[in-house]
Each structure stands twice: as structure tokens, then as C-alpha cells.
Amino acid sequence: RCRIKDAARASCSRVYVASTVKLFIDGKFVESKSSEWLDIHNPATNEVISRVPKATQEEMLAAVDSCSRAFHSWSETSILSRQQIFLRYQQLIKDNIKELAKSITLEQGKTLADAEGDVFRGLQVVEHACSITSLMLGETLPSITKDMDTYTYRLPIGVCAGITPFNFPAMIPLWMFPMGMVCGNTYLLKPSERVPTCAMLLAKMLQDAGAPDGTLNVIHGQHAAVNFICDHPAIKAISFVGSNQAGEYIYERGSKNGKRVQSNMGAKNHGVVMPDANKENTLNQLVGAAFGAAGQRCMALSTAILVGEARHWLPELVERAKALRVNAGDQAGADVGPLISPQARDRVCSLIQSGVDEGAQLLLDGRNVKVKGYENGNFVGPTIISNVTPGMKCYKEEIFGPVLIVLEADSLDDAIHLVNNNPYGNGTAIFTTNGAAARKYSHEVDVGQVGVNVPIPVPLPMFSFTGSRGSFRGDTNFYGKQGIQFYTQIKTITSQWKAEDATLKSPAVTMPT
Ligand code: NAD
Asked: Does the complex come out with an ipTM higher than 0.85?
């Protein structure tokens, strides 16, 4: 039963007040027959707002069978018809952006403005998917020999599956099924069990946009659902975004079963601050990128390296972080919302304590923050730890909370050395007014996404999301040209049309030269 409280209910819209999250199988939103259910909490209050099932084996089989059946007709549907569906879809998402954002804030906790950004960045991928008619073009080479031409088709691969994390309930599902489906694949989505409602709203909108039954199926669950996806032979490709623990496991298990797997994982993103940087701009960017979304972004700038004299900027950094308002995400003026769960909060607090125990300096401590009216929420206020060294636990682990750790370096070379010795390679940024320093950093740093005076350099969808090293497993990245490659295979056709008088007179038994 839905035990949502009046205050939270008032900020809900009609769709997600439902007491249980449905499965989406073969075009129908159905109640699971599972005996195992998980509670979904509002992170600002810890009240239970609904329940999500762990789908049964029969339900998961029904979902993948539906994808397999739909693939026959969907893959043969004209590319222009598929494009039209996604053109309608992007409009529906735009029309419902506020409703989607509310569902995100309720289940995930981020502020409403940030939740709209979550939808918007996913919407951009849907918009890009609408260019599919040029993205899917093959190649041709006429006259490779007399009367012979070679050309390629880019074709779908079959049933694809997506497994998503809690921190971007709209953007990350939208990195996956629109790209996969517009290429002609059918799609099985397993959203994060902690924030499933936004994915269900997105599934409903896709159905309303005209996607035929079975082209998208949604199941829910945890490990059993993930193992099912890794093992089912009809599933040809898996897109995963989440932690290293899950991502490396899924990459290995899925690959062993002969599937394509792309796995975007954890991060430790460094912001290198040169003493010549524009101070005002840099400090604001650092604070926004470290504490926005309560630090629960894979591209959060969680680690600052202050080079040379920039070390004197610390007191001002602390003042700006202190000024951020911690509050429930649906409250006006909130800058920093709650963490996803009490366990996440405890973990973040213990990592802060580990820094103190290992000799770092706690310049700003957000552990005892009190939010009036939301005393049971999972809040941690902005926290800054300085004098951190690479051997400390708070440096080695992804904190995934509103915590900025600060290291110092004497030179740009020292800073690059530090960043390149960290196992993760998701994102990084340099703040400087010196073009030569910016160029040197961009070229020498071994990280997949680099910002120059841009704190969170997430590429737009005409490019790809190119996290590297410990932040990625696979060889083809999400969205952009690489996303199309991931969701397609190439067929190469060599054809000869000879005039009659050029007919072979005897069998050709040697390789053609
Ligand atoms: P998570 O790994 O706990 O969960 C992600 C998905 O995997 C969920 O659907 C979950 O059900 C499943 N899962 C969880 N544990 C599993 C296990 N042991 N075996 C199999 N499946 C499992 O991640 P999360 O906490 O939801 O998300 C936060 C993490 O995601 C952070 O590490 C963050 O950096 C990362 N992330 C990375 C990117 C990126 O693009 N690199 C983007 C967003 C988030």
C-alpha cells in the first residue's frame, strides 16, 4: 500500500502516486506476481512512497520473448517511420519535463531544477536519435574491379538491454533505449530499483509516441534480473551505467556469454586550479561541480588540485560552499538535496571521518547538518577536506557525496602526474588563463573527458561519452557515432553486374587478384 504522506503527496502527480511500480511487458503495464518487493523511499523524509517488484523468472522471460517477437517487424520498419516515432517522443518529453522532474526529485532527491537538467540532457540524446537517417548511412565504393561495386549496410543486432543507476533516472535510460531502438533493435530496460518511476513514465510516453508493443519492455529487480540479462541468449548487447563493482561483473559475465557490453562506471574527477585562473569564475565552478546533485554525479568534480599560489584560495572556497542551502529538492532555493539512502549517508560520513583519522584537515564539516522539517532525510552538507594525500582512503574511493577533497601541487607537471596515477579516467578539468598550460594538460592527461575552464565536460550527443581507464569497460562508448556503432552491425555486399558478353568462360579457382 502507498504510505505516502500528505506533504509529499501534494508534490506528486497522478501517475506515480500508484502504490506499486508496474512492469511493462508487450505493451501493457502489468502488476508483478512476485512475492519479493522493495520499498522506494523519499530521500528527503525516508518515508516509503511506493514498492517495486523483483520480477519473476516467467515475467523476465515474457519480456525478452516480447522483445524477440517485436524485433522481426521493428527491424524491418522503415527508418523514416522509426524516426517519426522519436520525433513525436522528443516533443512528448518536452511537454512533460516538469512531471518527469517531479518524479525524479521525489525518488532520487535532487533539486527540481537539477532534475529538469537530468531530463534535458537525456532529451538531447533523443533529439540526436532523430538524425538517424544520416547516422545509419553505409559506405559505397563503386568499380572495385570491372562491373563490381561494394557497399555496406548498417543493420540492427537484435534484442539489446540496459541496466541503469540511481543518480540520473531520466538521462541515463535515455542514453540507451532511444539510440538502440532507432537503429532497429528492440530493448529490455532494467532501471535502478531505487528510482524506477521516471523510467516508467518515459516508457508510457514512448508508447504514446507510437512505439509498437514489444519494442520496449521494462523489468525490475536486482541481481537476479541482472544475471538474467547477462545470460539470456536472445540478448545481444548490454549497456550498463553504475558502480565498478556491478559494471566489471556485468562486463565479464555478459562478454563470456558472447554479448557486446559497454560499461560506464565510477570516477574520481580532478579539477586542476592554476594560479593564473580567473579566481571568481573558478571558485564558483568548483563549488557548483563538487556539490551540485549532492555530489552524486559520475562527473562531479570531487577532487581539487591547487597548483602553487592557488593554495591560498581555500578560505574563499570554504565561504562559497558554506553559502549553499541544504534542503529537500522540491523546496524553493534548495542547492543541495539529500543522499539517496541512510546507508549512502553513513558511508559518506565514514569516508569523511577516515580523512580526519588519516591526518587530513576538515575545513568544512557537513555531517551534522539539520534541515528544518526534514529531520529524517539523508542530508550531508557541503564538506571540504584539505591536506589530502593519494594514500588516503578518501582519495582512493569514490565518495559520491557533497565532499570536495583538496590536494596541492607545486607545478602543472606534478598535477598531471597525480591525475594520471589515479585509476579512474572519467572526467577532469583545468582552470587557467594560459593557453599553453591548457593545451599541455589536455594532451598529457590520461582521462577520457577534459574540460578547459569547463568543470563538467559531459559531451553533447553528437559526440560520445568517452570516460576511459578504470571508469569504462568495452570498446565502443555511449551515444554519438560510437553509440550507433555499438547498436549496429555491418553487412558488406559485393555485387557484379556484367554485360552478357563478359560471361566467365570457365570456373575461376584462384583468389581474385
Ligand atoms: P550500482 O552499480 O549500485 O547500480 C547500478 C545498476 O546495477 C542497478 O540497476 C542495480 O540494480 C545493479 N546492481 C547493483 N549492484 C549490483 C551487483 N553487485 N551486481 C549486479 N548488478 C548490480 O550503481 P548506483 O549506486 O545506482 O550508481 C552510482 C554509481 O554509478 C557511481 O559509481 C557513479 O560514478 C556511477 N555512474 C557512472 C556514470 C558514467 O557514465 N560513468 C554515470 C552515472 C553513474
From this structure: yes
